[in-house]
Amino acid sequence: MSLPRDTRRHPGKDAAKTTLPQLNDKEKQPMKREKKTPTPMEYTGELSVNVQGFGFIRLPEGGSLFVPPGYLGGAVTGDTVLAVIDPQSDPDRPVAAVKRILQRKFEEFVGCLTPLRGGRWGIRPLRHELPDMLLLSQESVQRALPPPKEGNWARARLPFPDEEFPPEAIPCAELLKTGQDSGTVTADLDAIVEEYHIPAPYTPEDEAKAAALAPVKVRRQDCTKDVAVTIDPVDARDYDDALSLAPCSQPGQVVVGVHIADVASYVRPGSPLDRQARERCFTSYLPGRTLPMLPKALANRQCSLQAGEDRLAHTVFIRFDAHTGEILSWQRRHTLIRVRQRLCYEQVQAFLSGGKFDAPPEVQELVRRLADLSALLRHRRMTQERFLPMAMPEIRVVCSETPSRILGVQQNEDNPSHQLVEEFMLAANECVARELGELHLPGLFRNHLSPDPDKLREFAENATIMMGEKVRSLSSRGAIVRFLKHAERSPLKDVLTMAFLRHLPRADYGEECLGHFGLGKEHYCHFTSPIRRYADLLVHQQLLSHDLRRKTYSLEAVHDLGALCSAREYNCDQAEFAASDRMKIRYLLELSRQGGGADLLLTGEVCKVTKTGAQVYLPDYGLMAYVNEPALPRGWRFDSQKCTWSNAREGDRIYITQKRRFHMEKADPIRGELLLCPVLPSQEEEESQPPRKAENHGRA
C-alpha cells in the first residue's frame, strides 16, 4: 500500500504539538528495513481522532503512528485497530492507514437524532470522543418504534466489522431505540445516566430491606456526652463525618475525635446490599439528581450522623501537639455518638470571619479550637509534606429536583471552613492507612504516582506560552510547588491549574501503598466517606472483620475491587462533568431567552490561540469555550510568530492571558460545546446603554 504523496506529511505546527512520542529506536529499525522492500508493516494500537479528521494510533510499546484524513477505515476514537504502514513514508515519522477494527470502545452510545438530506437520518453522539455526526443505516431507521423524531435522544450501535474496511470508509451506526425529546433537564440527565451506565435508584423493596437491617454487635465506646458537630454543604443529606475535641492528660496536647458513620456494621461483605453498593461504587452527584451508592434508608437515616440522634460511628482519636499540629499517636474505636449541632460551611465561615453564630457556647468554643488547630495542621503539611497547592473554586449548577429546572450557578471557594474539615479528614485517612500496614491487613490505598518528566516538560512549554514568561524546569517537588504558588498571581490561574492537573496521572485505588504525590504523603487511604464511596466502605469492612476476628478479603480480592473502584470513579467523574457542562450551557440559553434573544455578553480569559481560533475560559461559569476561525468577522489575521489574531481595521487583537468580552455565537447542549465571537471595540463604543451581562446567579 502507498498513500497519495500529499497525505504522507504530518499535520501543521499547531497539530504537531499534540502528537504522541515518536517511535523508539527498536521500533524504527524494522521500518527502515521496510524502505528496501515494499511489503507493508502492520501495527496494533488505540486510535485517537482529531476534530480536523486526522488521527494517531498509540502503540502499546510506546510511540504513535499518524493517520491522515480519509484513512481511518471507519474507526473512531478509542477503537483498537490494526494499521498498515506506508512503506514510502519517512521511517522517523511513519504514516499509516487503518486496515481493520479489532475492538470498539464505544460500541453502543447515546445521541440526539437529526434529519439529513435525502430522507436520511444522523445522530449526534453525547460523548466528545465520538464524531460530531454519525450516519444511521436506513434499515435500522425504518424499523425503529416509535419512529425517529428530530431532537429525540436515542441509543445507537456502531457495527463491528467482520472484515477489512476500505481506508476511506465512513462509520454508519444502527439505531436501537428512541427516547425523550432533548431540551429538558430531566431528559438530558436521563440521557447522561444511560450513556454512562449509572445504575438506577434503589427500588422501594430495596429501601424496605435496608431499613430492616440490624447492625452487627461489636464493643463500643460511649461518646454521646462529647460535644460533636457535623460541617457540610447547606443542602447535604448524608452526614458521614463529625468532629469533637477533648483535652489530653499531657499538657500542650489535644485529642480530636474524627467520627465516621459505621456503615460496615450494616453492610456485610458479600451480602446482597454489598453487591449492589459495589455495582455503583460511588454516589453520583448530577445537577438536580443524586443517585446514592446506598439506599436512602441507610445513607440519609440510619447511618447518617444526624444531630440529636444516637448513631454508630467508627472513630479515630488522634492526639496532636497543640503547638505544632504534629500527630503524636492515634487510636481507632467503634463508638456511639450523638451530634450536638449540624453546621454548614457558610455558618462556620461567617463565624470565623467575625460574624454572628447561632450556636451554644460549647459549640462555638469547639469550632474555634478546631479552626486554630486545623491551621497548624495545614501549615505543617505545607512546610514538611509540601502538598501541591491546587485549590480551585467549585462552580456548580443549582437545580431543583421536583420539578427539574435550573435555578442558577453557585461558586464555592476553598476557605478556612472547608480547610477545617479537610485537615482532620486527611489526618484520619493517613492514620488508618498506617494502621493497615502495621496490621498487615489487605487494604485499599489511595495512590497518586509522581508525574512523568516528559509530561512536566510539555506542560512547562505550554505554560511559558500562556504566562508570557519562561517557566523553569519542574523536575522537583519544590519547583512544582513554587510554580503553583507563583501561578496563583496569574490572571489565568484557574486555567493553569486545570492544565497542570491534566498532565498529572490520575489517582487510583490499589492493594499496595504507593504514596500520594499530590498530598505529599507516604501512607494514605480513603476511610472518611463510607456512605458515598465503596473504597472507604471496603476499608471499614476489613477493619471490622479484623476486630471481630472474622475472615477478611484476600489480597487478590482487594486488588480486583481496587481496579473496579478506579474504573467506576472515572466513569462517574465523566458523567458529572458531562451533566454539569450541559446544564451550564442550558442556563446560558435560558438567560438569552429571558433577554428577548438579545446578544448575551460573557467575560472570558483567552488561554490558547492557534490558527484555528482561540480557547476561552469563562470564570463565572467554570466553562471552556471556543472562538473558531470561520466565525471571526472579516479582517482578522493570524500571526504565527506572536500567536495572536489581529484586526488592523479595528485595532484589535486576541492574545493569550487577555480578558475580554464575547458574544455567545452558538450554544450546543447536546455536545456540551460553546462557541463565542469577540466583541469589537467599535461595538463597545456604539452601545449607548450598559451591556446586559450574564451574571453568576446564586441559588434562587
Keyphrases for this structure?
700 residues, alpha+beta, 7-stranded mixed beta sheet, 5-stranded antiparallel beta sheet, 16 helices, 31 strands, globular, disordered C terminus
Radius of gyration: 28 Å
Helix count, per DSSP?
16
Q: Can you give the mean pLDDT?
A: 88
Q: Ranges with pLDDT <50 over ≥5 residues?
A: 1-39, 688-700
Number of strands: 31
Classify the helix fraction into a percent range. Answer: 25-40%
**Class from helix and strand fractions:** alpha+beta
Please give the largest β-sheet. 7 strands, mixed
Shape: globular
Distance between the termini: 63 Å
Overview of this structure, please?
A hairpin with a 4-residue loop joins strand 27 and strand 28. The protein is of the alpha+beta class. The protein contains 16 helices and 31 strands. The protein is globular and about 80 Å long. The longest helix has 40 residues, at 555-594.
